[in-house]
Amino acid sequence: YPQRHSLETQLSKLNLTEIEAVLGSYTKVLFVRDPFQRLISTFMQSMGSSPSFSSFVQDVLDSGEHSAHVAWKPLVSLCQPCLVQYDYVVMFGFLKQELGHLLSRAGLDAQSLLPEFTDTQVQWTYSWLSEQMLSELSLQQKRQLSHFYRWDLAAFPFSNSFLSD
């Protein structure tokens, strides 16, 4: 389907046969991150738009799953992992190992192409930040967030997520 296949083509504009052909011609990689860490990251990047993490979370919850901003929308609704057969799922926190593996599988020199990662320090920082931010939330907000991200938590192994409790 080269005539309809361009950088601007969105899958939603193709029929099912065309979608299968396009997706079948690519190596599909999905990068996933703990939903609570995504929320923290979005809040930190948009400091000033909400006075506190708790009010930010309430805004997220009030937006609902279907009209949620892409920055905090559940991954399952964004990436359709039940419909798209991804070749690789790369977890945030394991980028160095997983990207090295991907580059090697593609026949590329992982040593010369990979930047220096600090996964361990980032994981520790997000663990500490998660504890601090979680303490700002009410029990009801924690439950609502767990429900909001229930499909992400079921689809991906976020075993250390503060929302899995």
UniProtKB/TrEMBL annotation:
Main subcellular localisation: Golgi
Topology in membrane: Single-pass type II membrane protein
Entry coiled-coil feature ranges: none
Single annotated GO MF: sulfotransferase activity
Statement: the UniProt record of this protein carries the keyword Zinc-finger: no
Protein EC: 2.8.2.-
GO cellular component term, pick one: Golgi membrane
Compartments (UniProt record): Golgi apparatus membrane
One Pfam entry name: Sulfotransfer_2
Biological processes, Gene Ontology terms: carbohydrate biosynthetic process; dermatan sulfate proteoglycan metabolic process
Keywords in alphabetical order: Carbohydrate metabolism, Glycoprotein, Golgi apparatus, Membrane, Signal-anchor, Transferase, Transmembrane, Transmembrane helix
Keyword Ribosomal protein included in the entry's annotation: no
Protein family membership: Belongs to the sulfotransferase 2 family.
Protein's name in the database: Carbohydrate sulfotransferase
Source organism of this protein record: Upupa epops (Eurasian hoopoe)
